[in-house]
Structures are given as C-alpha cells and as structure tokens.
Amino acid sequence: MDTRIIKPTEENLRICAEAVRGGGIVAFPTETVYGLGASAFDEKAVKKIYRAKGRPSDNPLIVHISSLDQVKELAASVPFKAHVFMKKFMPGAVTMVLKKKPCVPDTVTGGLDTVAIRMPSHPVANKFIAECGVPIAAPSANRSSRPSPTTAKHVLHDLRGRIEYILDGGQCDIGLESTVVDFTTARPRILRSGGVGAEEIEKAIGKLDAVISGGKALCPGMKYKHYSPRAEVLFSAYYANMSDTINDYYDRYAASGRNPVILCLSGRKELYGGRNVIDVGESVDDYAKNLFLSLRLADAKKYDLIIAEGVTSDGLGAGIINRLVKASAEHII
Ligand code: TXA
Ligand code: MG
To answer: Structural domain boundaries of the chain?
Structure first.
C-alpha cells in the first residue's frame, strides 16, 4: 500500500472521511499528537488500527468527537463534575473516562465497561471528525512503543505502507497526549497526565483523587513499553545542580565509546560546555511540544544515549516527567 501525506483541503477531507466510512483508517493531526482514526462503530476497521500499530488488543482506544452532543451517544451517564469539566476543557487536550453505552464495541474499549471520550480543538481534526459523521476511535499514530508522532513525517516514518492517507496539519502545538481523567470513581482522578495540568483541572472541579504511582497501571496502556526511541534514555530528576550530574554521566559514557546527547532548555545550554545538546526550546511548554520530536531527532542523528533534563511537576511538567520516566524505563539519575 502506498502511504500519502496530503494537505487538509476540503476535497482531501472528504476523501479521507469517505475512506473512514468505507472501513478504512486515516492519520490526522490534533493539537496534542497525530491520531490514527477509524469509525468507532466499525469493529473490523478498529482491528486494522491495532494491526497497523502492532498494539496489544487489551489497550483501549479514545473515541474522538466533533460536538459535545455526541457524548450522550457514547456514555451511559455523565456525572455532574464531568459536565463541568466538559464545558470548561472541551474541545481541548483532555479525555474523560465515563461508563459506556452498549453501542460502543468491546474492540474499542478493550472489554472495559467504560469509554474514553475526547473532543480535539485542532480545526483539521474537528472538520475531519465532523465530515466522517461518526465518532472516531483513535490512538496516537505511532508504531506501538515508539514516541508519539507530532508531525506528518513522523507518522510516515512509523506507518509507511500500513495506511493510505496522512492528513498534514504541521507540527502539533502541545506535543504531549491529552490528560485522561476518570469520572467513574467517587472522586475524579487523573489516569494519565498530559496536555492540561492537574492544577487547572482542580481549580475547575475541585480536589482530584491522589493517584499512587508504582501500583497497577491505571490507564491500561501505561503498563506497556512506551515512548522509546532506539537510543537509551537517562532522565535526570530536577534540582539546582542537575547539570553537574548530567555532565558526569555524559563524560563517563562518552569515555566508554558511547555517543551521548543532552536534551535541555535553551537558556541552560552553556551549563553543558561543548557537549552535544538538543535544544528543546525556551519554556516547559516548548519542552512538551518538542519532546517526542527531540527523541526522534536523536535517533536520526545516530546518538545512542539521550540524557534528558528534569523539570518541576507543575503545568505540563507532570506530563513531561511521566513520558521521560517511561522512555528511560525508569533509569533516573
Ligand atoms: O491526545 C491524545 O490523547 C491522543 C490523540 C490522538 O487524541 N491519543 C492518544 O491515544 O494518546 P493512545 O491510544 O495513544 O492513548 C490512550 C490512553 C491509553 O493509555 C489507554 O489505555 C487509555 O488512554 N484509555 C483508553 N480508554 C480507556 C478507558 N476506557 N479507561 C481507562 N483508560 C483508557
Ligand atoms: Mg499512544
């Protein structure tokens, strides 16, 4: 199969929507990362997504909508706090988990009795989903275990020959996947940190349940190997002198014949002397936006060890930490 990157013109959106209605799968941009979509009500098409990604079938997919009215097509009930949440953050970089209606197939939910629902704010995503006329089941459009794609080229790199169309919306603005919030427990809780910070969510709907890390994976998907470039990743905790530790590690690995690179904020580059760095931007939001791209860039430049700077856990920091802890298989320095 030939894989084509196409511009999101009216005509191309129609072609892609038709492909989806005919049981096909299409990659599309969102403000978080690129998604790989199929009709959520077409189990055969949904199975194609799992095959194309090489994804374990017990890892459920998020169902994407283009209008808040579609929530009641999918969810058996919407608790009050979910209502408030939805009005405040949707469309946007959040996903809510609710009890599902029987019409949502088990193939989409991995056999769970809940469904994850998200309404992207990216205009191309929104138009594409609306044009399809059905809710769209979509995971991130990477091969399973790889960093999520934030450009059409990254999708092509992972899925060439496995899908027909990639709608090109340029680089994703946020760069981290959506924050997944579970509304099926007595008090809502975050299952995956992401594009909207926990503080902002708590401001809108009150205290969230604390999530104890290290226990059973909450999002079924989080138990799998994730976000991994080919290079090995070391992740530094955030503290005042972290650059000293990073430099120590860098020099020791370089002396043993490795080819390391440091992921750091622009303003901190000089702390690393003449060592190889990838500049992730000026702010923590830039770091989020460029994180997956930088992991892929390190591979393309044939570095075999990535040492990533830590950040504080506020705002998008929690999402960055979560992704890097996973990418490093918890190798924290
Ligand atoms: O920003 C995003 O969320 C992107 C874009 C494409 O929308 N999508 C995305 O999908 O990141 P994916 O499949 O890569 O990650 C979805 C996560 C997985 O960890 C999955 O286990 C979890 O959401 N999930 C899906 N349905 C769930 C459910 N019913 N209950 C709990 N977790 C669920
Ligand atoms: Mg993913």
So the answer is: 4-210, 232-327
Q: What are 86-116's pLDDT values in tens digits?
A: 999 999 999 999 999 999 999 999 999 999 9
pLDDT at 76 exceeding the cut of 50: yes
Say if 4-210 and 232-327 have the same CATH topology: no
Q: What is the pLDDT of residues 134-170, one digit of tens each?
A: 999 999 999 999 999 999 999 999 999 999 999 999 9
Q: Quick check: CB of 109 below 6 Å from ligand 1? A: yes
The model's pLDDT over 289-321, given as tens digits with 9 standing for 90+, comes to 999 999 999 999 999 999 999 999 999 999 999
Quote the ligand 2 centre to 59 CA distance (angstroms).
Answer: 10
CATH number of 232-327: 3.40.50.11030
Give the HSE-up count for residue 63: Cα atoms under 13 Å, Cβ half-sphere: 32
Over the chain, what is the mean pLDDT?
A: 95
Instruction: Give every strand in the sheet of 232-235, ordered side by side.
Output: 232-235, 305-308, 260-264, 277-279
**Ligand 1 and 150: CB distance under 6 A:** no
Confidence (pLDDT) at 214: 47
Range 105-108 contact pairs with CB under 8 angstroms and sequence separation of 24 or more: 105/40, 105/41, 105/43, 105/46, 107/43, 107/46, 107/47, 107/57, 108/40, 108/43, 108/46, 108/60, 108/61, 108/63, 108/137
CA-CA-CA-CA dihedral for 83, 84, 85, 89, to nearest 10: 110
Considering the four listed CATH numbers 3.10.300.10, 2.60.40.1470, 3.40.50.150, 3.90.870.10, the one that applies to the domain covering 4-210 is: 3.90.870.10
For atom 3 of ligand 1, the residue with the nearest CA is 178
To the nearest whole percent, how much of the chain has pLDDT over 70? 96
Q: Is 114 in the pocket of ligand 1 (CB under 6 A)?
A: yes
